[in-house]
Design a protein that fits this description.
Strand content: 5-15%
Largest sheet: 6 strands, mixed
Structural class: alpha/beta
Radius of gyration: 24 Å
Shape: globular
CATH architecture of the domain at 7-187: 3-Layer(aba) Sandwich
CATH class of the domain at 7-187: Alpha Beta
Length: 435
């Protein structure tokens, strides 16, 4: 499972932001915060960087109103086994952050950057942003591919430079998406997930797999249309995928295509508040949840399960509906998700699930329920054999004290906290607070 998911997550391009060389942590956070201001790039601003080398497969690209959206992942993320199923899980771009005064050798910087981005097989675009270069670095005329120098300047000038570079990255990604879709349409592509059987298929199963490939290809093309900021094109491909997946009983990919269609609907109607749209989202997402549940295969249960997708879909719908007047409906969704935790195998999935449930209950104003699930989070932290997890557990427990009207039996200084053992932490976490 992934934290902080929403229906719109499907249209976000994942970019890894990696420190290259020695970058002071305060500066890294500052550079990252500057990047975060440019997570949405209007398509209308990238025309000077965009070159159409062939007829675009995005026939309904909304150049005047559309945009590309980014999810910037500081430090990157490990590859997901579900990247074929949901391309937004791929790291599609890498931005390196270099602090020139700390890394004066630009050749070494580029070598380190190349080694870093090549660790992601899915990367389509890469740039290394080198901040505060000295005079000697600025005067260095050697051309280094993908290295962009940000000369010392005031904040507004750097922001403008950064915005321009993000527009360049956006155009490059859009052209890469066009290439991918054109190749997929002409040559076809084989798409698998961990749910697919690893055993040798019978002739009948081979025929079925070939039919399913068409639906999966259409669904994935729809996903890339979404990433490219073209919801109308995405919806056309999703409609085809849904029909084909229904005919072949490919429930998992049917649910994925239906999820994509909801995202396309919301992106296309961005900013509109319409009860009819809300009802449509509710109807489709309930169907998404049902079809993820139907895709459960008993023989795969110990190896892999679609349960995390069912639970993520439940959380997405709950987040979409999360407001006071719908509190009862949202609470039912969250309770259903909490019940699913019993069947989760991975402890980190449980941790993410309980964190998200606690956050959403908190948003609703259900503080005691939020506190209850926060304590579940603390218990999961305590199962990890390290001091940092124990400290996290104590911090989470401290956050719940107000909701439970808890009083501390003793006051513990920060200095003493750093010296206790994990076992002592466990005792503290179980006895330090009383209701």
């Amino acid at each position: 499972m992934e934290p902080d998911v929403s229906i719109e997550t499907s249209c976000m391009i994942r970019i890894a932001v990696l420190p290259i060389g020695d970058v002071p942590s305060t500066l890294l956070r500052d550079y990252h915060s500057m990047l975060l201001r440019h997570c949405t790039i209007p398509l209308s601003t990238i025309s000077s960087f965009y070159t159409e080398h062939q007829k675009s497969p995005f026939a309904h690209q909304p150049w005047e109103t559309g945009s590309l959206r980014f999810k910037l992942v500081l430090g990157g993320a490990p590859p997901s086994p579900w990247e074929d199923f949901q391309p937004h899980r791929k790291i599609l771009g890498v931005i390196g952050i270099c602090h020139c005064p700390s890394s004066p050798d630009l050749d070494l910087v580029i070598d380190q950057f190349n080694a870093a981005w090549r660790g992601y097989s899915s990367v389509l675009v890469q740039r290394c942003f080198a901040f505060s270069p000295g005079d000697s670095q600025l005067e260095d005329t050697k051309k280094r591919e993908n290295l962009v120098l940000f000369p010392p300047s005031d904040r507004s000038a750097q922001e403008l430079h950064l915005q321009t570079m993000m527009q360049d990255i956006s155009a490059s990604l859009l052209m890469e998406f066009e290439k991918w879709v054109l190749q997929a349409e002409s040559a076809g592509t084989i798409l698998k997930t961990p749910l697919d059987s690893q055993a040798t298929l019978s002739s009948e199963e081979v025929i079925k797999a070939k039919k399913r490939r068409l639906a999966r290809a259409q669904k994935t093309i729809g996903d890339y249309c979404l990433l490219a900021g073209s919801p109308v094109d995405a919806n056309a491909h999703y409609s085809t995928a849904l029909e084909l997946a229904r005919l072949t009983a490919d429930y998992f990919w049917y649910a994925g295509a239906l999820e994509g269609s909801v995202c396309a609907l919301l992106v296309d109607r961005m900013g509109q508040k319409d009860i009819a749209i809300e009802d449509e989202v509710r109807y489709r997402y309930n169907s998404v949840i049902v079809h993820y549940r139907k895709s459960f295969i008993q023989e795969n249960a110990q190896r892999v399960s679609p349960l995390t997708f069912e639970l993520e879909a439940t959380l997405k719908l709950a987040r979409f509906l999360c407001r006071r007047e719908l509190a009862k409906e949202v609470a039912e969704l969250l309770t259903s998700a909490a019940d699913g935790a019993k069947s989760l195998i991975d402890a980190s999935d449980k941790l993410i699930l309980f964190v998200e449930i606690a956050r959403l209950f908190g948003t609703l104003g259900y503080q005691r329920k939020a506190a209850f699930f926060s304590r579940q989070v603390a218990q999961l932290y305590l199962q990890q054999e390290n001091r940092f997890a124990a400290i996290s557990a104590m911090q989470v427990l401290a956050m719940t004290t107000k909701a439970y009207r808890v009083q501390s039996r003793t006051s513990i200084s920060n200095q003493s906290l750093s010296n206790v053992s994990i076992e002592e932490w466990r005792k503290l976490c179980s006895t330090h607070f009383i209701c």
